[in-house]
């Protein structure tokens, strides 16, 4: 596979004839490098406290990034059209992996102070794989394949949607049971996005959303840890010595960071924010680099999303268009939800920050998705 990647990559980068979008790729690698630096700064104190090695998390993340880059280059060169044939198989594999997390000895569970066991990982020696991340890519490919077929049919037979609905519902239920409510929201947003792109009126989608509010309320109110998270979100200072500690510390990090930040890896959040290198890594980033650094990061994210949006809307292949749009929706949703959580606009959901949060499964799936996106937006695919 390495030889294939090297040969194809050299062919694509002939001076003046490259078919890849340089701005998109450069932005991806800037964010990747920046994210690794921020993750290291956020994790060094925790790593020293737990493992007596300030570079412990840096080394593990670097290994995952190296592995992920191999997949990034592969999917940037592999004809993405062939993924359509694997759409149904990918869903079955994703469902199988989601079931494995509940099997003792294979799946790994973690208890939380909310009194709930979370079944989200499969143990792979010293590393862990999060099947819900794999499921996101499988769902994207499957939905792109499904909506392409519907688009090409003059009179779509909606009876054929029974099997796809069962597969999608199975994935959603398994992820909910883990539980991973944030990932479930991501997948639901992608489904709604595809329906909107297919031509379903936005007003009708809004009505569906309003009608679904009672169900969302039940899913939150009847599940103890979700209800507690909403209570913490509404009044974090009331719970500042236990469940609200993360959010209150995040607020302080934003305040202490000021315009230009403090000395690296030395602020309050670095010392007292629990696992500051994971979901709340943005708080320590702002504490280090201030509001100006935060604006630069936002600019890079917007550059990535808008450049990709500009290219995806020019893609002529329906499957490529839907797949590229789905990747944009899921990445944009992750960025928005994580930022809203860390700033207290949204209740805590456990959504990681792409490029920056520590986590092998997350960076692997992000780079695979972006590799596919780079492939879809090649010049020959958008008519340039």
Report what the structure shows.
Its EC number is 2.4.99.28. The chain crosses the membrane at residues 20-41, 62-80, 86-106, 161-181, 187-220, 289-309, 321-349, 355-376. It is a multi-pass membrane protein. InterPro entries: Cell_cycle_FtsW-rel_CS, FtsW/RodA. The chain has 384 residues and is mainly α. Helix content is 67%, strand content 4%. A hairpin with a 5-residue loop joins strand 1 (107-111) and strand 2. The longest helix has 32 residues, at 281-312. It is globular, with a radius of gyration of 21 Å. The protein starts with a helix and ends in an 8-residue tail after the last helix. The model has no long low-confidence stretch (mean pLDDT 83).
The largest beta-sheet arranges its strands as 1-2-3
In helices, the fraction of residues equals: 55-70%
User: Largest beta sheet, briefly?
Assistant: 3 strands, antiparallel
For the record, give the distance between the C-alpha atoms at the N and C termini, rounded to a whole number.
29 Å
Cα-based radius of gyration, to the nearest Å: 21 Å
* Average pLDDT reading: 83
| H/I helix tally | 14
Strand content: under 5%
List the uncertain runs. none
- Given helix and strand content, the structural type is mainly alpha
Shape: globular
Number of strands: 3
**Could you give the order of the helices and strands?**
HHHHEEEHHHHHHHHHH
EC number: 2.4.99.28
Transmembrane segments: 20-41, 62-80, 86-106, 161-181, 187-220, 289-309, 321-349, 355-376
Protein name: Probable peptidoglycan glycosyltransferase FtsW
Subcellular location: Membrane
